[in-house]
Every structure is written in structure tokens, then in C-alpha cells.
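Schema walk-through. Below, the input block comes first and the output block second. Nothing else is stored per chain. Lengths vary across the set, and this one has 267 residues.
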Amino acid sequence: MTHEEKIKEMVKQSYSEIALQGGCCGADCCSGIMNDDYSQLDGYNPDADLGLGCGLPTQFAKIKKGDVVIDLGSGAGNDCFVARAETGETGKVIGIDFTPAMIEKARSNAEKRGFKNVSFRQGDIEKIPVTANAADVIVSNCVLNLVPNKKAVFSEIYRVLKVGGHFSISDIVLTGELPEKIQTAAEMYAGCVAGASQKSDYLDFIEQAGFKNITLQKETSILIPDDILKNYLTEKEIEIYKANPSIIRSITVYAEKHPCCCNSGCC
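--- output ---
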């Protein structure tokens, strides 16, 4: 098994456990300290909110009535149901998730509410199981940082979006070097931190995929509580780490797929 395969298997196992226990809890799930409050948004369903997000991408996604929306890493369906409130009965929402237990939970949540225009597909977002030029809008919430090949994901997002379509993605990035003990901790990886890219690299991946009008819609510093840090670092190492509290950032980034001109090199 390759290193990337091991990471994916670890993520699948961790998120299967979260789906089965009905939410994010414990020191091994640090994204629970990052998620924003969805409760005031139309379409919010508490049963579908497992506390795994790090932003509100659907709030910034400029979804219109009738849009086809795809949520990458859809979990129990939280962002899909909020997106459905925006796109309405004439639109369509597709959730993609890597974990069978999450797909099962999301489908159950949709069925309970009688949502006929929300569906869920199991798949790897490095190879999105959707045809090209299918989506008006793509959203994702604290998921790409879990994927080893982020460059491949942005290429896939570009493929799946219609010309003129756009994405709004909330994710975790870094603006400095994490302590090695945090980088290599399996639990922190599943909690979205250790797999994060440098912010500059992350934005480069988006540009290299061919996107235009790349915009940071929101950026917030993430502080990991001492009771989590002490599981990995000594008191002295915690002191050193906290001297630069802005290393971990939650960002929501927007970008558009423009018509391709062949002299631009994107054809």
C-alpha cells in the first residue's frame, strides 16, 4: 500500500467512526473547533451537521435557482441541504463522499425529508464520478486538506464545472511550518490540520488548474486548544508553537471557469 493509499484508508476509517457515532468528538477530531454556525441558514438540518466544517462555503457560493450544485466531501449532507434551499426545486444537488457510512447517513437524511433533487455518490474526489461540464457551482467544506493530491482535485473541479461556472471552497491552509509531531499525528490528519498545504501552494494549484478571478472570500486564524496540543507536544514545544498562533488558517476561496482561449495554453 502506497503512502497516499494509507492516508486515504486512515481518513475513511476515521470518518466512518464519526458517521456511526453521529458527530465529531474527542481530541482526534480537531475540525470540531473550527466549524462555523450553520443554524441560521435556510435548509439547515441538525441531523446532517456532524461538526466537521471549517467555514460556510454555501453562504458565499452565489447559488441561483435552478443551478446544478456539487458538494465534494458531502458527509451527512449538511452543505447539500443548505445548497438545495438556494437552488430550489428546479435545481439539482449532488454530494460526493469517499466514506460509505457517510453516504448511507446522507441518503437517510435526504429520504427523511423527501428531497427528490438531492443525491449522493460514493467516490474519490481526485476522480470525481461526474461527467465533464456538469455543474454550475461546486462547494466543499474542510475536505480538500484531507486529500493527498490536491492538484488533481482542482483539475477535476475544472473538468466538472460548466464554462462560466464557479466554486466556493472552505478549507484549512498553513502560513508557516507545523511542529513535526503534529504533522505526523494520524489523529490530527483526520482532524484536517496535518494534511493542510501552505496557503501560497494551495492558491497556486487553483491558478494552475486554469481558474480565473480567484478571490479569498473569508480568512480566519485557527487556534488549537492546549488540551489538544498537549497530546502531541511538550510544554516547551507548546510555548514555541503558540508564539505564532496564525500558522493555521481557515479560508473560503472562490474562483471561476472562464471560456478557454487556445493561446492561453488551457486547451
